[in-house]
Known about the structure:
By secondary structure, the chain is mainly alpha-helical. Helix content is 67%, strand content 0%. It contains seven helices and no strands. It is globular and about 50 Å long. It starts with 24 loop residues before the first helix and ends in an 8-residue tail after the last helix.
Amino acid sequence: MITSRRGTRPFPLPRPLPLPRRRHLPEAAVWTAVALAAGAALWAPSDTDPDLSPLSLTISDFAALDRGGPIDASMALLGVVSLVLLGAARRRLDAVRGLPSVLLALWGLGLLVAAAVPTDPLVTDLGGPAYVHRYASVLAFLALPTAGLLLARRLGVDPGAVRTARLLRGLSWAALIGAAVMAYLAGPGHRELIGLVERLLLGCEVVLLGVLARPVVRAGAGRGPGAG
Length: 228
């Protein structure tokens, strides 16, 4: 008996939907936290009191008026994401190890302390917790751009990271200049437009953090600058 060698084709199964690559998830998490922090800093004041001006009051002033609101939550989230990013960066990038790692840890921990310890709302004489909040914020906002300058110098020796190094350097200098202007406005400047300057400073720093996530993700893919 002659049998046919032609087999029957199985019914084709539908292909599963493509899942996002794992190496893109850390960068997506960073930019999500950045967007939430920026959104809270810009829009939360109108929810707290429409008559208060975000140009003359700091983000901390509005957070103190709405404890546990979107500003505190987004700052805490940004701090947690920053520390998670630091853990990945230490494993993947040699350039982050050492002093930049310490500075990035101070940035993340400073945000968490500032979110957990409130300042005193709209008063001149600050209490003990308000001073803790102030110095934790100052330490965080100085630590991140300093780390950015160190990383820009270390990453700049790699031809594939020249653009990232240039962005880190520019954003870091802008943030340090903003911090100096903030210090002036808090004293001799009588807080004129201090809220506007602080929001610009925060914008520089959160974008700087997002730029830092790029070489970390690329190093995790095995093709980034300074991959260990």
